[in-house]
Amino acid sequence: MKYYKYLFKKSKISFYLNNTFSCRRNFKLLIIKKGVKVPSEPPKGFQNNQLCLSKSGYFPQTDIDETTNIYPESQHLPQSDNTRNKLFVSNEDSVNREIEKCASVEDVFKVVRINVDRLNHRHLAHVILALYELQSIFVQHYEEEDEDQARRRFYKKLLEHNEFFIVTEKIISQLDSSDSKYLGCIIYYLTKLGVKESSQLIQDCAIKLRDHLLNEFSLSSASQLLRVVFQENSVRPYYIVSDLIPKVFQQIDSIETVKDLEDLTNCMYRLHNILTSDILNNYERKIQQLINNKILTERDVQAILKVASLFNIPIWRHRFSAIISKCLLLMKNSIESCSFEEMYYLYEIFFKNQEPGDILNIIQRSAAKLLHEIEDTPIINHKNKLQLFSSIIYFSSPISKANFRQNIGQYLNGNQTLQTLISLRKVFSYLKISDNKLWNDYWNQMCQILKEEKNFEKIIKLMENYMYFSMDIYGFKHYAFEHCVFTLIQKYINEGTLTLYPARLFSSFSFVLMCSPHSKLFNNLMGSFVELSSQLTILDIFKISYSIQYSRQKKNLVDDLILKEIQEKLHKGTFKIFSKRNLEPTSVALLTKSMVIRRDFCNYLIEDMLTSLKSMPRMSSKLLEYICYNLAATKYLIPELLNLCTNYVIQHKGNIVGFNIEKIICLLYELNYHPIYDEEFFEAVIDILIRDQERMSGLAFIQAALALSFFNRLPKSLIRQIFNVEFLEKLDVELANCYFKDRYPLRVRHVLMELNRAVCLENPEYNIPWFHHKYLEEYKKNNAIDDVATKFHLNVKGYLLGIIGEDALLENVTIPYGYDIDFVYHLDKNNKITNNVDESCTRKFALLLKNNEDYTKMYVQLKGNHSLKNRHLEILGYKVKIIKRNIWDNLLYAEEKKDFINEILF
Predict the structure, then answer these.
(1) Percent of the chain with pLDDT over 70
(2) Which candidate, 29, 223, 413, 851, has a CA 20 to 30 Å from the CA of 271?
């Protein structure tokens, strides 16, 4: 017992004060009667009419989001303490009072030995609960181990005590007389301790509890039962509790307390794969009612997070984004008092929805404070610290990210687990850390975990993390990790198990396509891919599309014929999925994005997919982000779709974050589309930009300002803010610390030049100086090419010389503020060509050649930057004339072209 005494001496706290971390577990040991250990793999099916669980299947993910498989179950008090308060009140009998005083495992088992003949089902539940609390303390203070390993280690120690088997035998012997609420506590915390859900002990308890609930239903006990049986992700648990499911759903209308709401939400979360739209809508109405009646309030943080987590499931997240935002806004005033678990769950929900923006500042401030508190504790929980840190940095300002990048060493730990390594991968990606040694050390540790991992779903997670990392840290390769993955894939191919689950094959195919598309392994996978391509899901299509994009950038792509076949299969799979009725708008948007990134948009399918979004009944921030990406990449101008986006901004401006408002305003500028209800829209845009400006990158903020300038909506306050020494110095610091030093500074400087030009020409009353003359000279010098004349240019020039003459035609003219004009000519007051440019009555004309790429698609008009150039040329005194490439190419005869030019010139 010295081991446990040392633990408590080290922690110096009783188990009443410990923080319980409730997560799904998958332990390797189980016990049955008399403490006999049996293999961890359970027999398949039912035996002797007893419950037996097996890993017989899984439900695929439906969204590209990186899921964490976490679900909030802790409370303001630790979860177990709340159970204690509900089941074991202070005036209980003497045995319960003795158990309550126990401060070690030895103390608990001493009570068991002394009172062995007096133990009833209430005492047994209390004993199991006390042991679980001690296990939680053990896990917290031995963080050098993986949490699952620490729990298994504690559980093995329990198996060394005969008293533990006395307790389990007592549980079995008293099943018939057990109360359902205590039996629910027993079954739930036994599995938390490490007893396998397939053990005879858990089977007997589960069957008995199910029978109890069929006779006398209790939401609390049903919640505990479902949390146990649904530790396996297959159809079997649904069969086990099939008679209870209608009883659960019937409780929705009768919920009147927060406690019942939590239990109901726990049940529904476990049953989420069979929830229908009617059930979800009924549940949403109940949540609205509880909020309106002040039953669910800002103090009920845990309940709110549980409700939001249920609505946040990917397959219906978009449909319920409004109620998710309402729930998060409800807890706005309680965010500062959130615990670590609460804050982490809150971040997960906010990150996946990107709204409501009004709480972002509070979240960041509260999370930073919580992170400092974790760092100041005597025993720092490295996993918690890293998880919270990986959440904070995504929404941090560029300056903060630079500081985080310099101090990254304090978040590195020599003994990493799979969970901490995944958090670290997010840190590397978000901060864009440039350190080859750090990267290689990281993936060396991943290799060790990969070699020991047997669960193929976790192997896929590791593969995906490597792919995300390689996309974020462009050009990185870790050949040892790739070799390990290739070896494992080949092993599963040889065993014939890889194609049993198409999702596994497609994940492996996308990995090999990205990393080694010319290998023999890829050729082996290609045949299976073609054979199973009819089973492609949205997520599969998305991942393979990204692999194509990455390989194309690396110039490491497969042969053209193979690529064409892959593209055809992806296109066919996309069409098949899109043809389904009632496809969620986010699914359509994700399919469209997949087509964009693999450059498959020279067809009518992508047009049909984009136009189908015009009739969607609801909008969300995440969908708005997808739409902005797809329209910006394809250059499709669809007014109805843009109106949906701008109306959403007007109606929900408190929900939109600055990152997304920059995307929509820049898209409108790019497509040269003036929104309806422009007064309300631009007012909302400016308010959001001002609120979130500190979190936006310098490039995003300047681009948004340029877009506002295009619409003549750039306020004087923002102009003064950008064109001052403080902002420009801050911008220099950001550029000095950015990751893409070869590209990002060039983009920032060029957009700043465009904004400077726009303000000088359109707002001369603000007296902003033009300070980019030297920059433009250097830019043109560095980007000069020997022959700027295209065939189109030369062809037009030939006709112009015949009409205007060489002396009166100016070619490739650069004017003040850096604009280039293809041709310049002058007309006198009689509308005749003239060389006398100094006469007051002489008019100057700018003739611009426009290619097809300079226009939007579907609704065809000049793009925003070209329209802005025309406007500025007119401010500078030019009358603008345009020759469109497609019109010119359709003129077949010389006389037609001559007449066409004459009509334009005069």
Answers:
(1) 87
(2) 29
Structure tokens at 256: 């009147």
Mean pLDDT of all residues in 75-88: 50
Q: Which residues contact 293 (CB under 8 A, 6 or more apart)?
A: none
Contact 654, 614 (CB under 8 A): no
What per-residue confidence (pLDDT) applies to 846?
93
C-alpha–C-alpha distance, residues 433 and 402, integer Å:
10
Q: Which two tokens stand for residue 73?
A: 């179950």
According to the 3-state scheme, what is the secondary structure of 666-685? HHHHHHCCCCCCHHHHHHHH
Q: How confident is the model at residue 85 (pLDDT cuts 50, 70, 90)?
A: low
What is the token pair recorded at 100? 């309550």
Sign of the CA dihedral running 18, 23, 28, 29: positive
At residue 312's C-alpha, the angle toward residues 81 and 626, to 5°, is: 150
Dihedral sign for Cα 289, 292, 293, 299, please: positive
Helices (H), 235-319: 236-240, 245-250, 258-270, 277-292, 301-311
Q: Name the one residue in this structure whose structure tokens are 């469109």.
A: 884
Determine the Cα–Cα distance for residues 462 and 600; give it in Å rounded to an integer: 28
Whether 626 shows a pLDDT value over 80: the answer reads yes
CA dist., res. 214 & res. 900, Å (int) = 85
pLDDT of residue 34: 31
**Which two tokens mark 275?**
């929830």
Q: Tell me if 821 sits within 8 A of 846, measured CB to CB.
A: yes
- Of 720, 721, 723, 748, which is closest to residue 734 (Cα–Cα)? 748
CB proximity list for 582: less than 8 A, separation 6 or greater: none
Contact 848, 855 (CB under 8 A): no
pLDDT of residue 17: 26
Burial class of residue 278 (count of CB atoms within 10 Å of its CB; 0-12, 13-18, 19+) = exposed
Of the ranges 527-541, 546-560, 823-837, which one carries the lowest mean pLDDT score? Answer: 546-560
Buried b (16+ CB within 10 A) or exposed e, 172-208: eebbeebbbbbbbbbbbbbbbbbbbbbbbbbbbbbeb
Mean model confidence pLDDT for the chain: 82
Amino acid identity for residue 905 in this structure: L
The b-or-e profile of 664-675 (16+ CB within 10 A means b, else e) is: bbbbbbbbbbeb
User: Residue written as tokens 């073609």?
Assistant: 530
- Predicted confidence band at 688 (pLDDT cuts at 50, 70, 90)? very high
Q: What is the mean pLDDT of residues 318-338?
A: 92
Q: Which of 246-255, 326-335, 412-421, 662-671 has the lowest mean pLDDT?
A: 412-421
**Domains of the chain by range and CATH?**
1-34+76-233 (no CATH), 455-606 (no CATH), 787-905 (3.40.960)
Pairing of strands 857-858, 878-884: unpaired
